[in-house]
Amino acid sequence: MSKSILLQTALALPNPDIEALIQGRMIAAMPRMFLNPGRTFALYPANLSVDLLSGDRYYRSHFLPIAQKALAQLNSDRVSIKAWAKCELCQMVNEPESLEALSQLTVWKTEALQQILQQRPFIFVAYLRVYLLPQPLEMPVQSSGNFVSLPKSLNVTDSTPVLSESMFAKRRQKLEKLELPEHPELEELQSALVHLSTTNPKAKQLDEEIKIFLGWSENLPTTKPDPDLDWIKTIAQIGNSSDGNGFEKLVRKGFIKLGFGNSNHKPEASLDPESTGGAGGLDFYCETPYQVVGECKATKSETVADGTPAQLIKLGHKHLQEQYNCCIKIIMAAGQLNRHANKTAIGNHMNVIRPETLQRLVELKAKQPGSIDLLQLKPCLEQQPFGEEADAKVNRYIDGVREKLKVRSHVLSILKKYLETTGSKRASVDSLSGAFSMSNPPKQLSREELHEILVELSSPLTGYAGRIKGDSLGRDRFYFLRDLLLDD
Q: What pLDDT, in 10s, does the model give residues 190-248?
């Protein structure tokens, strides 16, 4: 349950520092006075220059463009307060040998910290748990001492933390022990992506995923669905119409979305949605990662005659020659095949798949990009049954993928709940195994299977969990990074 807190003052900090706190890049601030743990305050963006150091000497190079932008946003008349914070701890640092590690865990340059320490007996380092305001508070600029008075009391709640309790605890431990960051090269890459992410959606997605992996963020701030879902959700509708050309284009786009490819630009044996085969050409042909050839049959209500599989045989041999025999063969058809057509399809090892099934497969790929492994799908398409019964085996494959995703989502939820309940920073497989088995999971897992899934989820390529590797299975420790959200 969220707590209600009344704020009357704001701590004045350099605006770039506040931006770094809001972005989750660091949890530290350098106030000019000691802050009592438990004290709460808004964060007032001030144009403070620490000991008159210029920005390029004060901030680390990868953060400097963000710092310059934050300083440029300051207005001489009004300020915008976006967040508030609670001081969790305040320490005094005066050991020169600690400054490099402190720099690596924040956005401040080591030389800037050294210069501050030359002019003061110590540096105050406050650990701040930061929360976003539901909307920015605009107020006139005030001469900034350590604290400024708010124009009116501000009633806030702790329902929108920048970092969850478990993530903040992990970051706090690293700062207290001055442990160097594990992936400084990724911090550099993330900063380089900041400029690209404003105009390039793929760069933005990578930027967000890196921030999650680094522990700067836990949820994607913009969970926009894949824009391709707009056309993906029309596959079944168009397939069950008389728009044969439109259906063929959607099928080609669907196969490309799944990860199939074709470098052959000949329109009669292509996968290009803008250059369909037309009369005498194959409806779709994939070369990679394996060969697939197919015929599309959009229809409102009529049955599919023997001419459709016969057409695939004829055109396949014509355009692919001996390669046709190596291909997986698919008929995408909305209508039911008549007896002769289904017999031909079975005898020639053709999978008859409905538009609804293709749509379901491509939708899953769009919503969970790593879920469809085409090499695992291949045996499903190569094995019996063929003909109209093949549709059921493809749906069983989809159901199996969804079941695996449910298990992984459940494992993550158990890890997250365990850490929140116990207050631990990380969990072993043994401690999670009991909690998992008692949680009514979609599927019971052995200790080894649970460990294998946790390792998979903590891969840098997935970034759902983190892993502290031990010297054996029982010594690995895992921590939560982000949810794996699934549609019902």
A: 666 666 666 666 667 777 777 776 767 665 444 467 889 999 999 999 999 999 999 99
- Domain end: 164, 194, 212, which one? 164
Q: What is the DSSP string of 192-222?
A: HHHHHTTT-HHHHHHHHHHHHHHTS-SS-S-
Q: Say whether both 191 and 261 belong to one domain.
A: no
The reply to whether 174 falls in a domain is no
Q: How confident is the model at residue 50 (pLDDT cuts 50, 70, 90)?
A: very low
User: Residue 42 — φ and ψ, nearest 5°?
Assistant: -75, 165
**126, containing H or E segment:** strand 123-140
388, 413, 444: which is the final residue of a domain? 388
State the first-to-last Cα distance of the chain, in angstroms, to the nearest integer. 26
Q: How far apart, in whole angstroms, are the C-alpha atoms of residue 108 and residue 59?
A: 5
User: Is the pLDDT at 7 greater than 90, yes or no?
Assistant: yes
Residue by residue, DSSP assigns 13-53 as EEHHHHHHHHTTS-SEE--SS---TT-EEEEEEE---GGG-
Residue 367 domain-assigned (yes or no): yes
* 303-339 tens-digit pLDDT: 899 999 999 999 999 999 999 999 999 999 998 999 9
Contact 311, 325 (CB under 8 A): no
Chain centroid offset of residue 367 CA:
11
User: Is the same domain home to 329 and 461?
Assistant: no
Whole domain around residue 13: which residue ranges?
4-164
Same domain, 463 and 356: no
Residues 6+ apart with CB under 8 A from 450: 411, 429, 432, 433, 436
Q: Which run of H or E residues covers position 313?
A: helix 307-320
Task: Report the chain's mean pLDDT, rounded to a whole number.
Answer: 87
Residues 10 and 154 in one domain: yes
Q: What is the pLDDT of residue 277?
A: 53
Tokens for 22, please give them. 């809001």
Element of type H or E holding 351: strand 350-353
- Going through 417-480 in order, the beta strands assigned E by DSSP cover 427-428, 465-468, 477-480
Cut 0.85: pTM above it: no
Nearest by Cα to 206 from 485, 479, 461 = 461
Q: What is the per-residue pLDDT for 320?
A: 92
Rg over CA atoms, the chain? 29
